[in-house]
Amino acid sequence: MINVAVCGANGKMGKEVCFAVENNPSMQLCAKIDLLGDDNFKTIADAQKKAKIDVLVDFTQPISIYENAKYCLNNGINIVIGTTGLSDDQIDELKDLSKTRQVGCLIAPNFSTGAVLLMMFAKQAAKYFDNAEIIELHHNQKKDSPSGTAIKTALMMSEAKENFKKGNCPETETIKGSRGGESYSNIQIHSVRLPGYIASQEVLFGSAGQVFKIRHDTTDRKCYMDGVLLAVKYVAEHRDFIYGLENILG
């Protein structure tokens, strides 16, 4: 039995994770951690004093995830991170800390099988196109931009080549930010925030005479739960660092 704590338990994703863990026969929900709610622990430290935690799943906020992750790794708690907003330097530090402490840490920008496949397909397609851009669309309560999924997608695509703006003319933005943000290998990422969306992403590739699009849409947060539970089982059995769910898919 894997004892699982959920940090951010009162959030939309946190509630789904709690429900999924409670209905998994190989897991036990040992602690709900959230500043809101009388039946929740307020901090990870408080929960650890009262409960045996094998794995903590974090769906909190960009402002808190880095310190939460460091606390877990420094205190022997394997962690699954679904919260986005970590910088490259922070991810590198958590990787080093995970290896030094021999505590499992899995960071996944997206736990949906379809979204992970989109990233993998985009990486493959990047070998054959010299121009590409990413559009990501989320609900208007998402606090970070661009999304972690878009950042990870661009990173994976950048392994194929160094520049995805081949042949582009010099550009002038009449309105600052109209071309989005420039990421790895000059891939432009455009972030849309509107009520009605949960999470969607489109990767566009262009070349002379053709445009190739890959798109994934999330319509229910339940689609993330299989990936979350897979990640929980993985870090409970392994003591290594993983960035991206694609690295543990069978």
Description:
With 250 residues, this protein is of the alpha/beta class. The chain has two domains: 2-107 and 221-247, 3-Layer(aba) Sandwich (Rossmann fold), CATH 3.40.50; 113-218, Dihydrodipicolinate Reductase, domain 2, CATH 3.30.360. It has helices spanning 12-22, 44-50, 62-74, 88-101, 113-125, 148-158, 225-237; strands at residues 2-7, 27-33, 55-58, 78-81, 105-107, 131-138, 181-182, 188-193, 199-207, 210-218, 241-243. The protein has a six-stranded parallel sheet, with helices on both faces. It has a five-stranded mixed sheet with strand order 7-8-6-9-10, covered by helices on one side. The longest helix has 14 residues, at 88-101. The two termini are 22 Å apart.
Quick synopsis:
This protein is an alpha/beta fold and 250 residues long.
